[in-house]
Design goal:
The protein is α/β, with parallel strands linked by helices. It contains nine helices and seven strands; from the N terminus they run αααβαβαααββαβαββ. A seven-stranded mixed sheet has the order 3-2-1-4-5-7-6, sandwiched between helices. Bound molecules: S-adenosylmethionine (SAM). S-adenosylmethionine binds next to loops.
Length: 236
């Protein structure tokens, strides 16, 4: 049986990106009130400065990523390498991306460099603001977060996450969420919609989780502008 979540070598091939608060607002339709209404979980946080930027606005965020197992220097090197790779990769696959939003490969690299630096200034593997953990197992009590955000992992890498991995990952993200879970995007890295979405949403409904899609205020990949919103049928 295939593993339920990426492990070992496979995970090392996933890039670690630093999307900033402005992108999170657009991906997840976040309002100013959302940022300060209660504890937020960002999983995977990657090199995003989202937590640092929300804390600068008096909000509370815990960022979780399996890459936080790396030493600070190792993580900094990976993030800088992956930021450079992003420019090369998007330039080589221009037709796949939404340049009306992203600008150009150079503009994207500039944005990511600033965002990654903001992250690295704030980052410390303290087990409080930044927690090293891997889906589908999170080290938090039930309902610990009012809002959970998950960007560019689930649905993006169907070659690494099986269907069961998606189901157990979302159920675990919901276990620690009292309010709402938002996931973006719903396409893989080639822009292909997740093929088993209807089946997945039906399986979530059987577990008391309601789902609906919404149109985000951005897309990176052409056509990839939907997010998934998940709530408990019986509020917790
Ligand atoms: C493309 S980055 C997205 C980071 C950030 N959310 C953003 O949008 O810029 C994907 C991240 O998922 C992390 N990751 C991969 N598998 C994971 C797992 N099973 N649990 C938690 N994080 C994981 C990787 O380390 C990587 O940092």
């Amino acid at each position: 049986m295939a593993s339920q979540a990426p492990t070992g070598e496979a995970i090392d091939r996933l890039i670690i990106t630093p999307r900033p608060l402005s992108d999170y607002r657009d991906m997840f339709l976040l309002t100013d009130a959302d940022l300060t209404a209660g504890p937020i979980l960002d999983c995977p946080g990657g090199a995003s400065p989202f937590g640092a930027q929300v804390r600068a606005r008096a909000g509370s965020v815990v960022s979780v990523d399996r890459a936080y197992r790396l030493s600070r220097d190792e993580l900094a090197e990976r993030v800088r390498r992956d930021t450079a790779l992003t420019e090369t990769w998007t330039a080589a696959n221009r037709e796949s991306f939404n340049w009306a939003y992203l600008g150009s490969p150079v503009a994207l690299r500039r944005l990511f460099e600033v965002a990654a630096d903001l992250f690295l200034i704030d980052y410390a593997p303290d087990g409080e603001r930044y927690v090293a953990a891997s889906l589908p197992t999170l080290p938090f009590p039930d309902g610990a977060f009012r809002l959970t955000l998950s960007s560019h992992l689930l649905f993006c890498y169907p070659e690494y996450f099986t269907y069961e991995g998606h189901l157990t990952g979302i159920v675990e993200l919901m276990r620690v969420t009292s309010g709402e879970l938002r996931i973006f995007p719903l396409v893989d890295t080639t822009g292909r919609p997740y093929p088993r979405m209807d089946e997945l949403c039906a399986a979530l409904a059987e577990r008391g989780i309601l789902t609906e899609t919404a149109i985000a205020a951005c897309s990176y990949l052409a056509g990839g502008d939907s997010l998934l919103r998940c709530r408990w049928k019986e509020p917790r």
